[in-house]
Structure of HAD family hydrolase:
Amino acid sequence: MRAEGIIFDVDGTLAETEEVHRQAFNDTFARFDLPWHWDRSLYRRLLDVTGGKERIRAYVASDDPPQGARALDLVLELHTAKTECYTELVVAGAAKLRPGVKRLIAEARRDSVRLAIATTTSLPNVEALLAAAFGSDAAKIFEFIGAGDVVPRKKPAPDIYRLVLDEMRMPTFACIAVEDSRNGLDSARAAGLPTLVTPSVYTSHQSFPGAMAVVPDLDTPPVSLATIAKWRAADSGW
């Protein structure tokens, strides 16, 4: 069964951006004189919490770091500064699309498959990545971008996917989601979407029960619209 719409997650799915996010967080902590440094092991744990502001609050609650109370008073300022830092890094070329992403998007556009984004990351982060990856075509590619705080609950809640589906006026059976994390998979499945998972550097240790398919990336093997149709036909859950 052909997919009439593909809804992409961003961080870890379109591009391996989490290391860029981690750098932006650490640079921002230094700028605000917070004696914090999130190493890869710590950041992998914190990624179980979706949303940058939520991640800072969770870190204070779970790790009781120095100046935690001060940081909680500055969460919005910290997040704004971190977003600015991240977008500067992306514009400078710090994040590249994952293998096969540009090819599958180009095939979808040729075949009039509708494209959208459902992510918990901030809209400026998404726009910076799309501009860096697609240039002047960026604004034409995705019909709707659901990002940031536009819904009450972030992934793994299904809110962001339901919003995107409502905005596109598309039924769930006509679309698929592409995700990289268990939170993203659970969010998409709760919204009724068959989901293709391409684990990222920070989610490769996770399990993905209920996924339509799990592949290393969209080039391994090369994922096409025909491949997706075969997976959907073989997936008894859809």
